Amino acid sequence: MKDTQWIETYRGAVAAWECDAFGHMNIAFYPQRFEAAARDLLERKGAASVWQTVELDVKYLEELRAAEAVVIRSGVLDASGDRVRLAHEAASPAGARTTLAEHVLQRSISAPALFGTIAGWERFAPAQIPSGEGAFGTGRDRVRGAECEEGALPPSGYTHRFSDANVFLMEAIGMSGAYRRANNRGFATFETRLSLETRRAAPGDGVVVTSGIIAVGTSSLRMLHRMRATTDGRPLAQFYQAGVHFDLAARRSAPWPSDLRAKAESFVLAAS
């Protein structure tokens, strides 16, 4: 049975402190909202139990800036065994879409066959992700108890660290703080794919992030971040991120200078 009616699952606004140096909401604050939306939807469909995000793929269509209102509506794409795949659509109160997401959650018992599924959603195409490790060490940190939920690091905690890793990767290709200030440039993400391992980082765990470049376009950059545990090197998460060299005055993409583009191209990972 198809249920073409989406359900409103979140209504709120962007806080000024959630915005980064480039003037828009940092990507690390999107998972919190989509997780809240998912739990609201599942609870209202009679499936309120302990769910854990295993994948969160996001397309950022428009910037979200401080004090802007956000409405999320959600629906079920499919459910099988212990997993359910949701669709989220974030929009302004007037209905202008800003963000789309596909969200896979897992729980310890089988998902019930009571989910009606939405129609008309164009499924995200798989991202082409190489298997190799990036050449750059872009993060080293310890997980704090205050940032954990149910004893483990939530998706937002991973995304915060991958957002920071992006800054180090920008520095590595020559897009330094001095360059950004002198040229009024930043970086705007338009797509992310977060994949989490079943065994999560817990309070006190050390984590390390490595990053690499997948492809360089006229103004775009596609990159891959991986997180591992410092104790045994086990993988914890993978994060695909695609964005553009961004003109902060015009609020649109700008071509890479030839020297930055050449340097970025020299670091592209081999295809898997």
Structure description:
There is one protein chain. The chain has two domains: 125 residues, Thiol Ester Dehydrase, Chain A; 146 residues, Roll (Thiol Ester Dehydrase, Chain A). It contains four helices and eleven strands, in the order E-H-E-E-E-E-E-H-H-E-E-E-E-E-H. Strands 1, 2, 3, 4, 5, 6, 7, 8, 9, 10 and 11 form an eleven-stranded antiparallel sheet that branches. The termini are far apart.
Give a concise summary.
This protein is α+β, with helices and mostly antiparallel strands and 272 residues long. It contains four helices and eleven strands; from the N terminus they run βαβββββααβββββα.
Cα end-to-end separation: 40 Å
What is the name of the CATH superfamily of the largest domain? Hotdog Thioesterase
Oligomer category: single chain
Q: Any guess at the CATH architecture of the largest domain?
A: Roll
C-alpha-based Rg, rounded: 19 Å
Q: What is the CATH domain class of the largest domain?
A: Alpha Beta
Q: Pick out the low-confidence regions.
A: none
- Domains, number: 2
Q: What composes the largest sheet?
A: 11 strands, antiparallel
Q: Could you give the order of the helices and strands?
A: EHEEEEEHHEEEEEH
